[in-house]
Amino acid sequence: MLDFRIFFISILFNLANARVDYSQYVNPLIGSEGPIPGYAFGGGDIFVGGAVPFGVVKVGIDTWEDNITIATLNGGYTPKGKVTAISMMHESGTGGFPKYGIIPQMPLTTIKSPVNLLDNQTYWQTRVGDDIAKVGYFKTQLENGVTIELSGARHSGIMQYSFPGGEKYVLVDVSHYLPSATGGYSNQYYIGGEIHLQEDGTYTGYGTYGGGWNEGAPMTVYFCGDFDTTPDQMQTFRGRNTDPIPRYHTFSNGGIPQAILGNMSEYAGPLNDRVGALFSWTNSITSQIKSRVGISFISSDKACGFKNSEIPSWNLNDTVAAAVQEWNQDVFSKIQVDTSSFVNQTNLVLLYSSLYFMHLMPSDRTGENPLWDNREPYFDDFYTLWDIFRNTISLYHLIQPDYYTGMIRSLIDTYFYEGFMPDGRSGNYNGLVQGGSNADNVLADAYVKGLREGINWTRGYEAMLKDAEVVPYNTFSYDDPTSSVKEGRGALADWLELGYISADRSSRSISRTVEYALNDFAVSQVARGEAPADVQKYLNRSAGWQLIWGHDVSSVNFTGFLAPRFADGSFNITGYNPALCGGCEWSDISYEGTPFEYSFTVPHDVQTLTQFMGGESEFERRLDYIFVPNTSQQDLGANGAGIDTIMNIGNEPDFATPYLYNYINKQWKSVQQSRQLANQFFHNATYGVPGNSDAGALNSWLIWQMLGIYPIVTQTTYLIGSPWFSDLNMTVNGNSTLRITATVSGNGNGTMNGGDNGGGFGQEDFYVQSVRINGENWGRNWFVHKDVIINGGSIEFLLGSEPKVWESGGEVPPSPGHVVL
Ligand SMILES: *[C@@H]1O[C@H](CO)[C@@H](O)[C@H](O)[C@H]1NC(C)=O
Ligand SMILES: *[C@@H]1O[C@H](CO)[C@@H](O)[C@H](O)[C@H]1NC(C)=O
Ligand SMILES: *[C@@H]1O[C@H](CO)[C@@H](O)[C@H](O)[C@H]1NC(C)=O
Ligand SMILES: *[C@@H]1O[C@H](CO)[C@@H](O)[C@H](O)[C@H]1NC(C)=O
Ligand SMILES: *[C@@H]1O[C@H](CO)[C@@H](O)[C@H](O)[C@H]1NC(C)=O
Ligand SMILES: *[C@@H]1O[C@H](CO)[C@@H](O)[C@H](O)[C@H]1NC(C)=O
Ligand SMILES: *[C@@H]1O[C@H](CO)[C@@H](O)[C@H](O)[C@H]1NC(C)=O
Ligand SMILES: *[C@@H]1O[C@H](CO)[C@@H](O)[C@H](O)[C@H]1NC(C)=O
Ligand SMILES: *[C@@H]1O[C@H](CO)[C@@H](O)[C@H](O)[C@H]1NC(C)=O
Ligand SMILES: *[C@@H]1O[C@H](CO)[C@@H](O)[C@H](O)[C@H]1NC(C)=O
Ligand SMILES: *[C@@H]1O[C@H](CO)[C@@H](O)[C@H](O)[C@H]1NC(C)=O
Ligand SMILES: *[C@@H]1O[C@H](CO)[C@@H](O)[C@H](O)[C@H]1NC(C)=O
């Protein structure tokens, strides 16, 4: 009886939650453009189209940008690029080279010469007018007069083509994928496929594709499509593959051949031919053709099943409405703020759009794992944990505990069946590893915060030990032939022998030393529960970063930096400038950040770090310095986003850095600096995020900023910031509520509902004056998970316009990995 009542109440609660249509605040185009108008280059690389939270299908347009040197096609969408197809699978926010853009359709109004079905350049289309993107819905118009509308369900999508009259075709080119003009070794490639037609226009088959940024093994995706109006004619086609794929049969003697038309079935055959089909409605009077396509990694029967069950209606609006409902209920309603007109509407857009983008990846492929057969949840498109381990996963933990438990189980299961947990994983394949084995951090973060149910932690700890102790085989990647970039810790041999990564034997020696240190701290955190005898060993190893601290290295008036050290123990500091990294690439001393930045990234032992930098005042002076304009010496390239400070919010390593003032009880400076970054770089605009959104990592950083708290990964600690809304209820741990409120102290500069900004308070009223947690006066600038997350709780902020050291009596945040070597 009691159980039933709780169930009933929770249903009512969910219904109430879902009643507000938060999806109206989402702008799905934030991040779709970079600094050069019309180009995606340097922007968020986001996916734009129809999708559900963590959906397998992300249906949207694939495009080609005319300027090859800066073409960026990663999410498929570009602001002005030519449309080559509508396809079912995409990544969102990734840099590097494209992955997916597969299982396509393309509406055509003619197939007369010069159109060649095998040559996308003969039929690709520029767009006219402005694209429209909403949650679960996308619309664009092609130059040939066709209007495309689409929506997505979990494993399927629906397209609606409004033709201008006259001939109507839909082309299905199984060999289509998102290309890269400059990818070379990292290009995707098509290996083969089949397509079979049925009399009513239903088509099934599969395509096999490999490569992409993660250097993925071939994967096979089955499909099943149909049309609301039976085609008047349909034909398959095939043709020799001319894409230059190493070690595959391709035909390179004089351009792209003409398609050879076939009848009802087509196989790529031993020469890996391209295959496809063309559907026509030449005589049909209807001007609108709709199509549904399902995909599966298991079989075309399953793909048909998904299509039929997930999209039972031919009314596009029904699929849109279902997607909106799911987003509202499962995602947006987890963070409820006042949406009335006196609340700054831009902030609502930033909040709900950020929630949207952080739920596009990874993909929940439970039941769709072609590699091994068991009942464990299966997630793919961790692209990558390097991006999302720093705070995205901690937000999943709070608002998506079920999905998050599934992700952890999937990581552990991948270890069990494939030997290593992934750092990046896409297309059912581990890769690439940019630094450490950061699944360790993800597991530790979940573990210390008490996530247990359904997770085999014995095996989880085993997986972490594998990362910590076993050198993965070298994949001889073009990116870095010195060690594995597939999984595990490529430079582990150095780490085990020397306790640090040497600059002469290994690439990325500085960033990988720092990351391996945190990975070993993560191991020690889980060892506390799973293998207490191991704790000290891994704690000691987590201090390895101290071994490459160059105590005498100076740069712009600061002394003491991480520095390159050789295997023989000597430092290589002649001519060393920690503010430079070469290109911050695979072969450089540090990855996507300078040693100056990485010298702040030791979250487990800020205490030692502060000492090494010369004590609290020097630590503070150095922090102040990295926010000073024009201090960056490194050319940040495509990810630059106009950033001219050493602090680079466009790349993940610096995510926690603006909050480090909390560690010297100067919380007001954390608030000032982090809020300044948010205001400067995050906007409700197409160029609204500073560079690749990285699977939503940049977006989740902004959400924490707006919540007024920031998690320290692998620890139970949350640092206190300053919230952007006056009242916010967050559903945490499944069914508890964390309420975060803010009132403004009575200084005449803003009242609760009177201001024209923020959640009803003035632009300047963001400095914390005092904090109460669960009704208690809170004397320190941090709290721990159990304080307000497990059973919910409240955080009440009193804000004002004056900076205040309100936490002076309190202990600073802990350094649980404090080790004196
Ligand atoms: C391509 O983009 C680069 C970088 O913005 C620019 O220098 C070049 O002029 C562009 N080329 C064309 C043909 O637009
Ligand atoms: C167009 O098709 C050719 C031939 O298959 C392929 O090499 C190229 O990458 C495709 N381009 C786009 C933009 O899809
Ligand atoms: C082509 O398909 C049609 C059915 O659409 C069938 O009647 C015909 O025999 C097929 N032709 C060949 C050569 O297979
Ligand atoms: C779909 O929704 C749009 C916008 O709400 C509406 O204008 C249109 O009439 C609807 N179409 C159908 C077929 O219900
Ligand atoms: C938060 O929850 C409290 C308690 O249920 C409620 O009074 C308040 O209106 C809620 N605030 C928002 C913004 O939903
Ligand atoms: C956010 O940007 C979109 C697109 O420019 C615009 O339509 C919308 O009005 C903006 N929202 C707010 C609250 O400014
Ligand atoms: C948990 O993992 C351990 C170690 O791999 C294994 O021995 C055990 O059988 C697993 N337990 C369950 C319930 O699967
Ligand atoms: C170093 O400090 C001196 C004295 O405080 C100052 O004049 C100089 O500008 C500083 N140099 C840099 C590069 O910040
Ligand atoms: C030592 O450092 C210098 C300057 O930073 C660099 O040019 C050189 O390649 C380094 N030597 C080795 C062996 O890494
Ligand atoms: C809340 O969720 C937890 C875990 O799912 C469950 O044990 C508990 O009974 C739930 N409480 C209520 C009030 O629904
Ligand atoms: C409001 O804030 C400004 C600057 O933040 C300050 O100069 C002014 O004195 C404040 N006004 C009142 C009435 O406190
Ligand atoms: C709303 O907040 C944004 C920052 O997110 C700020 O730029 C804008 O000025 C605010 N709008 C108003 C009307 O205060």
From TrEMBL:
Keyword S-adenosyl-L-methionine: no
Domain Glycosyl hydrolase family: 302-800
Domain Glycosyl hydrolase family 92 N-terminal: 25-296
GO CC aspect terms: cytosol; nucleus
TM region(s), chain numbering: none
Keywords: Signal
GO molecular function per UniProt: carbohydrate binding; peptide-N4-(N-acetyl-beta-glucosaminyl)asparagine amidase activity
Top-level division of the source organism's lineage: Eukaryota
Signal sequence coordinates: 1-18
One GO term of the biological process aspect: glycoprotein catabolic process
Protein's UniProt keywords contain Signal: yes
Coiled-coil intervals, chain numbering: none
Protein name (database record): Glycoside hydrolase family 92 protein
Lineage: Eukaryota, Fungi, Dikarya, Ascomycota, Pezizomycotina
